[in-house]
Amino acid sequence: METGASIQEMKELARKLNEAAKAYYQEDREIMSNLEYDALYDRLQELEKETGTVLAGSPTVSVGYEAVDSLPKETHESPMLSLDKTKDREVLRSFIGNHRTLLSWKLDGLTIVLTYEHGELQKAVTRGNGTTGEVITNNAKVFCNIPLKIPYQGRLVLRGEAIITYSDFEKINASIEDVDARYKNPRNLCSGSVRQLNNQITARRNVHFYAFSLVSAENVDMHNSREYQFQWLVSQGFEVVEYRMVTSETLDEAMDYFAEAISGNDFPSDGLVALYDDIAFGESLGRTAKFPRNAFAFKWADEIRETHLLEIEWSPSRTGLINPVAVFEPVELEGTTVSRASVHNVSIVKELELGIGDVIQVYKANMIIPQIAENLTRSRKLIIPDQCPACGQEAKVIRENEVEALYCMNPDCAAKKIKAFTLFVSRDAMNIDGLSEATLEKFIARGYIHDFGDIFEIEKYRNEITSMEGFGEKSFDNLLASLEKARETTLPRVIYSLGIANIGLANAKVICRYFDDDLEKIRHAQTDEIGAIDGIGPVIAQNMTGYFAKEENNRKLDHLLSHLIIQKEEISGEQILAGMNFVITGSVEHFANRGEVKTLIESMGGKVTGSVTGKTNYLINNDTTSNSSKNKKAKELGVPIISEMEFLKMTGKA
């Protein structure tokens, strides 16, 4: 290859690699697989050796990216370099030679530098770009296992990795209702947790810190041994990364241990680190422009399997993006059976030249996330759909920032309205168990659900659903039982479940009572009539009449009603609280929860809101003298603050 062409290729490789690194380190997103990144990086190194040229800005001589501006920046006392790496055990063996070497996990989290003075944690700074990092001291103080005070009273500087375990990652992700807001992997979650502006959020994330390098400790004899440094750090209360002491002769046994252990680890790791034990010898070797010469990284060779591509599923999301997912003949990878992998966007589909029936190679990035490594046959026999699978309307390929992706162009697509379906199945609405937001999103993406009524017809997709991952016969039967139970409901629940703006369950009950639970009267009511109902007002009235003015909304409601048995809500006792507005705060003693208090108030004609305003008649709080924000607001507005017992006496329930 001519030098000019090589230089041009190097420029293009550097651009791609830097773009990928910026996305990964600065923006916590991935735009290419680890396998692809490593291949491009190796190619760039090869060209640099061939040409004898290293371009400014090459990722082989620069480290990371500038820290984001959301946290204070600070320059590291000594630069934090990357490590040279290999996937070949023999290359690692050659590096080790006869030197005693610490072989430890290469944890996949966020590198942090800690500084202690006079026995107390003074400063914590992220790696950033290797020269400048972000100050996250307050956040580090709420990590699970960082000692705030240590016996050593001198100045100590050490480095380590902040991580979140797989089990905590799963728990935290499961608690995030918005599917699109969930984190893709533990590293992204850890990065977002460590760099919070509010350390209360960090404290809830169970971040752990594992030391892997002692930078300096004044006036402490470390016996010229990295292992001694690790042991000394343990004596100070730190947890250090697990390691084995090896030479080239004992390397295999240790490597076999790590290779077997990784499948059962609860923490993310993307390889191993080899570090010479002899401190003086290691430091005498110096460094290259990017790498220290006393350490070497080993990355696991990806386990790659060949299989056949069966189909591409196009999965719509609430943003309108339609994601391609490769479905292939199941293969065993890293101890689990894998049959699906995200292809991310149309650009990658085209780059891989995918076609149904192609022979593809698949692997797990960092032994976790299934990816397509290569398409061996490249038939290009794949048609990009021009219709959204969820709504059947136009789908269009749009190019942004050099990346092509498929989008649904229908603003009323069911997939874009996942929140409406989530509200519909919620406890205060139709109360349907077994339909989480993630499950609804899957059903909508596959075209099983287009409107609310379709949910009650889901049984016709039994075979397809029970073959879905994580949704067997038992789960499906439980869902059908829940749907059967939900068929018998009340009109206020139905009205609330429609998701009409500003109409909560309490407002729905007031409106239904006014019209004596006659849906046809509600459908044809005028705005002025609804707005005149006590506690409703013109905004809610306009939203209600505007909803029923649309023919499509009425059609969908009729479809839903064909599956329901509407029962008139029982009104217990006298409506002695009619027209009154209540706010409930604090703990309750005579009820199981505040929801029971709310139910009682509404059954007596009252209304419960979430905040104290000039329209509030009573604030119920057993701690009537507290300085809570609601108590303060009530006092400012002259709203009576009553205890639970006073409320019970008011209603004749005491």
Could you please describe the fold and organization of this structure?
The protein has 654 residues and is an alpha+beta fold. It folds into 6 domains: 3-51, Orthogonal Bundle (Helix Hairpins), CATH 1.10.287; 73-298, DNA ligase/mRNA capping enzyme (D-amino Acid Aminotransferase, Chain A, domain 1, 2-Layer Sandwich); 305-408, Nucleic acid-binding proteins (OB fold (Dihydrolipoamide Acetyltransferase, E2P), Beta Barrel), CATH 2.40.50; 414-486, Orthogonal Bundle (DNA polymerase, domain 1), CATH 1.10.150; 490-567, 5' to 3' exonuclease, C-terminal subdomain (DNA polymerase, domain 1, Orthogonal Bundle), CATH 1.10.150.20; 581-650, Rossmann fold (3-Layer(aba) Sandwich), CATH 3.40.50. It is built from 25 helices and 24 strands. The strands form 6 sheets. Strands 12, 13, 14, 15, 16, 17 and 18 form a 7-stranded antiparallel β-sheet that branches.
Describe the structure concisely.
With 654 residues, the chain is an alpha+beta fold.
Structural class of the secondary elements?
Answer: alpha+beta
> According to CATH, what is the class of the largest domain?
Alpha Beta
Low-confidence stretches: 63-68
Major sheet attributes: 7 strands, antiparallel
Oligomer: single chain
- Percent strand equals 15-25%
List the helices and strands and how they pair.
Layout: H1 3-25, H2 34-51, E1 73-75, E2 85-86, H3 89-96, E3 101-107, E4 110-117, E5 120-126, E6 132-134, H4 137-140, E7 156-163, H5 166-174, H6 186-194, H7 199-203, E8 208-217, H8 226-235, E9 243-246, H9 251-261, E10 269-276, H10 279-284, E11 295-298, E12 305-316, E13 321-333, E14 336-342, H11 346-352, E15 359-365, E16 369-375, E17 395-400, E18 403-408, H12 418-424, H13 437-445, H14 452-455, H15 462-466, H16 473-486, E19 488-490, H17 491-497, H18 505-514, H19 519-524, H20 527-531, H21 538-548, H22 551-561, E20 565-567, E21 581-584, H23 594-603, E22 607-609, E23 618-620, H24 629-637, E24 641-642, H25 644-650
Parallel strand pairs: 2-11, 19-20, 21-22, 21-23, 23-24
Antiparallel strand pairs: 1-6, 3-9, 3-10, 4-5, 4-7, 7-8, 10-11, 12-13, 12-15, 13-14, 13-18, 15-16, 17-18
